[in-house]
Amino acid sequence: MSGLRRGWSDTTPLLDQRHRSLSNSHTKRRPYSVILEMTSAVNDATPSRSGPVFLGVDVGTGSARAGLFDESGKLLGSASSPIQIWKEGDCVEQSSTDIWHAICAAVKSACSLAKVAGQEVTSVGFAATCSLVAVDSDGSPVSVSWNGDSRRNIIVWMDHRAVKQAEKINSCNSPVLQYCGGAVSPEMQPPKLLWVKENLQESWSMVFRWMDLSDWLSYRATGDDTRSLCTTVCKWTYLGHAHMQQKNEKDQDMEACGWDDDFWEEIGLSDLVDGHHAKIGRSVAFPGHPLGSGLIPTAAKELGLAEGTPVGTSLIDAHAGGVGVMASVPELASEAKEDDEEAICGRMVLVCGTSTCHMAVSQSKLFIPGVWGPYWSAMVPEFWLTEGGQSATGALLDSIIENHVASHSLANRAASRNISVFELLNSILESMTHEKKSSFLAALTEDVHVLPDFHGNRSPMADPKAKGIICGLTLDTSEQQLALLYLATLQGIAYGTRHIVEHCNAHGHKIDTLLACGGLAKNPLFLQQHADIIGCPIILPRENESVLLGAAILGAVAAKKYSSLIDAMKALNAAGQVIHPSKDLKVKKYHDAKYSIFRGLYEQQVSQRSLMAQALS
């Protein structure tokens, strides 16, 4: 799962710099008061109110965002509000109360900026990181923290406290594991649930509902406890294809039939089976299915919207990005490919934020070792989803830059020029290319190689114990050296994506086109390196806020403005710029060589790990 960054020009790390000197607990704090840090965007033209207005809400790792779209998928206005986060070692936690307050602030601000009255909003859709929420029978927060702080009732997606529990679950070799690449990740919910049961017995006994964050948001808004096929299939081992015989509209909101009770009993969580799986989901529906009677009065008042406004079943944020971009095809390409279903199966969506998710769909199920899925209807209804991922991409770039000696001076220079640190680094690299008379920019890193597994390898090695490697360091601490390290890290991330694409294609996919969205997709160097390294064109959406658009599409479908999710995608997705790979054969040869080194770095690490384990045995 992925927390999406606000933009590539936003270099704020996961832990806010302003608070680092105030606390050693690595806590990002924000009061619940009216004083909120708001970032916003609104189109210059005053929108017409003659048509529907769709609201999308997205909760990423660091902020809650809201965006309003018209019936052509054009962004009318958006706003964001920061959210609180606690990070202590492998434990990363948040507060559902804080997140809801941030959402309400963002929605009201977005409506104000877009000059849209709350009563004019046609529908609402929610997307969020795949974080785990704990609430009691009254809906109040239950602590998942060692210190018992009840505010901290969310285990964030990137939390790695449950590595041992994931290993225990994987040792069971349950049949459900074949539908998540052969093994659960510590970022999925079963290991986290097992960790809470083993370590926080009081909390475990108090929890009435365990929910994915996006499902909790929909529940908080509507009072309807129906879960999404997206969240349950991708993060809870729910077998979505159990719905294949019950696909009619009347059957979409139904008692869950895809839980494997033997699995939960085998891993020591049989109590979650009780009450027809009441704590983890008795009812599961397709994304975009209308929930309850729409917004309940309390939620409508808090959001500044009309009671009864339709709300669609939610998506994980990265998957919402997929829905918001996957049908974005340039006009010439759309004319050339009449078979939409075949065309969509040749694309992979990169949702690039704090982490990167790699999503491709197929008409038949493809079992790919080390890659999550196949997930039936987890993103696009009636298609099988393959989901690769890199656990730290935007977060890794932040870490590389901020932990370098030259970071402070670089940030000051960027601020004085009113540009981002990334823009300044890109400019430095361009200058270095001319100064060194390099034939192309990428060649500057011939002596620097990065394995980007600083937070483990999600795909395709499925190795949470993997570590990052930087090869080629010197005593140089200049801004130029930081620029090289930044470039090598960008390339390492792109080589990781190439590895995922090649691995998927070797197991039945036919991916030949990439679509990119999220904060990092606004960095032209990031995009060009990916295009050159993977050898595929990259299509960008017309609207930057693809995750918000994907969330908004869920509400539009729930409001019956479109007959299906795919029809809504076709109507509201639109392509923008296309990034083509370099035609210079020297560039290809160079990246092929570096990719070989990249693959070797992981192999060396595994060998070294084995050698040291033997030495300590």
UniProtKB/TrEMBL annotation:
Residues 349-559 form the Carbohydrate kinase FGGY C-terminal domain. Belongs to the FGGY kinase family. The keyword Transmembrane does not apply. One of its GO terms (molecular function) is D-ribulokinase activity. It comes from the Eukaryota. Gene3D superfamilies: 1.20.58.2240, 3.30.420.40. The lineage of its organism: Eukaryota, Viridiplantae, Streptophyta, Embryophyta, Tracheophyta. This is FGGY carbohydrate kinase domain-containing protein. The keyword Transferase applies. Residues 54-324 form the Carbohydrate kinase FGGY N-terminal domain. It holds the Pfam family FGGY_N. Keywords: Kinase, Transferase. InterPro entries: ATPase_NBD, FGGY_C, FGGY_N, FGGY_RbtK-like. One of its GO terms (cellular component) is cytoplasm. GO terms for biological process: pentose metabolic process.
